[in-house]
Amino acid sequence: MVDLRILSDEDKNLVHRESLKILEQTGVSLESREALNMLKSKGCVVDFEACTVKFPSQLVENALETAPKKFILGGLDPKNDMRLGEGNVYIATDGQACFTYDAEKGERRETVMKDLIDAARICDKLDYLHCFWPIVSAGDVPVEIRTLCELVRGYKVICKPKPCNNFRNGRGGGNNSVNPRRVVIEFTARGIFCRTTEQQKKKNYCYTKHIFAVHLFSNNLF
């Protein structure tokens, strides 16, 4: 595994200090009323009219202290497990593009689920890629269930780690949206993503992406 170090320890400390300053003095924009209430209850400074949140530096520091320093981001095949926090360097795809160039038709068009699946298949066969983050978005799937469909369909063709977004009430919001966290956990428990008996036994591969402040309200995730 390549030892890749771009920033010095001094550079990292500078980024950390300035990040704390931005979070505390400028804050972030957040339109979810539920999230605003949750963050306010944990000590954040919330402006409900402007939909902004400011994070006291000490609150962030405390959250970082509670976060695990090492963990495994697992794939369906154990050989693809990513051991994070141990000094390893991994390469992931990225993008979630909404458009692609169709080489067969010679035109630019919106991306669909087939594009995502094709990309997943390619990623699964390339040894230098360790993690599949959706390169394109499945624009032909309703936005309320898109994240879940991308996850389920993706795991039908890929054995490497495949993170997914974590939305409490689905991307579309509203009372009728699906709660991806609950569904993903249920799917994992039932082995929906598994393709073999051996994969059925392995339950640590499912991963959802949380914002850094997840530890501020870990008791209210579900």
Please give the count of helices: 7
| Ends apart, CA distance between termini | 36 Å
What class, by secondary structure content?
alpha+beta
Mean pLDDT: 79
Query: Fraction of residues in helices?
Result: 25-40%
Strand content: 5-15%
Main sheet record: 3 strands, antiparallel
- Say what oligomer this is: single chain
Strand order of the largest sheet: 1-3-2
Q: What would you report as the Rg, rounded to the nearest angstrom?
A: 19 Å
Summed up, the domain count is 2
Number of DSSP-assigned strands: 9
* Low-confidence parts: 168-176, 199-222
Q: How would you sum up this structure, described in words?
A:
The protein is of the alpha+beta class and 222 residues long. It folds into two domains: 7-66, no CATH class; 69-211, no CATH class. It has seven helices and nine strands, in the order H-E-H-E-E-H-E-E-E-E-H-H-E-H-H-E. It has helices at 9-25, 33-41, 57-66, 113-125, 146-154, 180-190, 197-201; strands at 28-29, 45-47, 52-54, 71-73, 82-84, 99-102, 107-110, 164-165, 208-209. The strands form four sheets. It has a three-stranded antiparallel sheet with strand order 1-3-2. The longest helix is centred in the first third of the chain and has 17 residues, at 9-25.
